[in-house]
Amino acid sequence: MVDFKKVKAPNNTITRNPAVLASKADNIYEAVAVIGKRANQISVEMKEELSRKLQEFASYADNLEEIFENREQIEISKYYERLPKPVLIATQEFEDGDIYFRASSKDKVEANSAGEE
Predict the structure, then answer these.
(1) I need a labelling partner for 96 at 20 to 30 A (CA). Which of 7, 44, 72, 89 fits?
(2) Which residues have CB under 8 Å from 31's CB, separation 6+?
(3) Cα–Cα distance between 90 and 93 in angstroms, integer?
(4) What are phi and psi of 51, to 5 degrees?
(5) Rounded to two decimals, what is the model's pTM?
(6) What digits encode the pLDDT tens for the residues 15-54?
(7) How far apart are alpha carbons 44 and 79 in whole angstroms?
(8) Among 36, 49, 50, which residue's Cα sits nearest to residue 99?
(9) One short Pfam family name for this protein (predicted)?
């Protein structure tokens, strides 16, 4: 579980050196795949956490007159909008070495057989 308050990722996109990303994996494509998978995990965590918090304010009445602005709900939504995007968090984690990943045994076998030919 990610503590979004302690994330050190930038809030906007910055230019990254592809060589640095590739050095932490076998190649740049593997690095991008790892970052993408981690970003999806973070996105799901953020969505679940936001849904849990907003569920407290859920109104199950069908009457449109009862729908009103809830200041707390708006503040929670704004907080999550200001957080860095999941891909930026995942990229920062990847650069910091906080993501553990490994190549599957199937990929290793295919790579070895391709290298022998």
Answers:
(1) 44
(2) 21, 22, 24, 25, 94
(3) 5
(4) -65, -40
(5) 0.74
(6) 888 898 888 888 899 999 999 999 999 999 999 998 888 8
(7) 17
(8) 36
(9) RNA_pol_Rpb6
